[in-house]
Amino acid sequence: MVNSEGQFYTMEGIAAAVLMVITASLVMSTTSIYTSGDTHIQDMQLELLGNDALKVMDTPKAAGANSTLEELVRDWNNTEFNNEFNLSINEKGINERGFGNLYYTSNVFYINKTGVVRDKLFSYSRTYFGNPNAVRVTRWVFVGSNAPIDGIGQFSDFNRTRNQTVLLEVLIWRE
Amino acid sequence: MNGNNGEEGQLSIDFLIGFTIFMLGLIMVANMIPGLMVGLRRTTAIDYDAVAYRTGAILVEDPGWPLNPMWATLNNYSIQRFGLAIDRETPNVLSRLKINKFFGKDIVLVYPDDYRSRLVFSDYPYHLNITMTEPGNSYSVGEPLPDLNLSGYGYIRRVVRIKEYPYAELNLNESYMSNYCVNSTAANATQNFTIRMDFSKFLVKNLSPAYQFNPQLEPINITIYNFGSKLNNTGNDTMGWLFNGSCHAASPEDWENANLTPPDNATLKSISFWKNGAGLPVPNVSQYNLTVSGIKNTNPLSNLNQTLRHNDTLSFILYSGVFPLDESTIMDVVFTFQDTPPRTLINGTYEIDYNKDGVLKMPDLREGWLEVAVW
């Protein structure tokens, strides 16, 4: 017996299969972000390390004293900041994971005389060329109204009519 | 027989084709799904980095448990959780006492059992290597690291500051000690010099725990030197002092006139402890360390008979946890000198406080690095 009833089933099957395959392809092509499995962990390690380094530099060594970080930013002492921060992030311990070749660059964000937020390069161990794996850590640093004073006029547009807490931004990456 | 020739129970070939196509499509989609997770898949089943991170966070940011009395003053069976921070409000500032205890310098902790159950909190038999690095010094617990190329391990590194023990340093020759003179007669040969610590003045709320002298976490460490300046043979007073009491020293001539030999030393008879005016039991010899110019005295504190010469430096350390001390405690450490006739010219009570005469020394926070490896 030959009739057209069976056609219905065949077309349904094809339609369902095509729908499923197209849907799955769409889902995969739109939501997949191809990263290596451990990238987020390396980022977390660098971020934690950078935050720790800034935090301990911002912890005064004695009661009533200023923190090292505060003094270094206030005095615009990027040489000493480089020594301390580099030591903090690159101290070699038991690690064998390349924690010993980290590089950083740092900027300070402040308010200038016209009330605009500006930034200046503070200290760096290597020039930053947009390394995609760099992580960013920040710390607010109170510098008051008379600082930073570096003696060569880099902060000539610093708004000295008010106390300021500047934002120190550090980018850290591994090479 | 009916009109369909008995074929009703059979599937039509068209239905089978449609169903087969549907199933093939379903299988293809099912095969695609695991591909979604490729980017997030790890090479091993356990995320060791996460375990290392958690372990590092507990050590660096948590003060441990119990808090009062502090775990570092207890034996291993009473410790519930390790944590090296001074206080939960001061993460990354670690206690020297806790570091010493954790790395097994003062108490015996057994790796791996003591560490797994109080730090990692897992039934999985993780292997650990925890290392503390300070400038010029490094120590660790756990096992040697495995070959990174063969098996790998989870790793985290934390930058920390370490709070060293405060200590009191009394120079008897300084002007702040000029009023602590003896006022006794020859018959009263016992002289008590008391060092008082009022912990309500140390544990003040407006000072971060990172800069406080905390008797729970830190030993009572007292150094006294320049005894020669308080010996009873340096003054220019008359004979009278020896017999009717004075705050001036007898000169060598005075001693000679009294047919006595001027002393070149004094005798420290005992050291005792008082809490809020009540006497405390005598600590046993493992709970303190008494040295005089570097030589240890192991006699009981109640009967020391320690000779102190002109240039001797007395160093006394009462380890933490010997007595229950808190912010309401007023602690007296009494140094009793006993000679007939008296050979020292020191008595009274000297109270130690922050910023008073520079006696209480608070060392700067030191830098350090804590590393945790887990595999």
Structural features, described:
- The complex is a heterodimer of chains A (175) and B (375).
- Chain A contains four helices and four strands; from the N terminus they run ααααββββ.
- With 175 residues, chain A is α+β, with helices and mostly antiparallel strands.
- In chain A, helix 2 (39-57) crosses helix 4.
- Chain A is elongated.
- Mean pLDDT of chain B is 80; it is low at 236-246.
- The radius of gyration of chain B is 35 Å and the shape is rod-shaped.
- Chain B folds into two domains: 48-165 and 366-374, no CATH class; 175-356, no CATH class.
- By secondary structure, chain B is an alpha+beta fold.
- A six-stranded mixed sheet of chain B has the order 11-10-13-7-5-16, with no helix packed on it. In chain B, strands 6, 8, 9, 12, 14 and 15 form a six-stranded mixed sheet that branches.
In short:
Chain A is 38% helix and 22% strand.
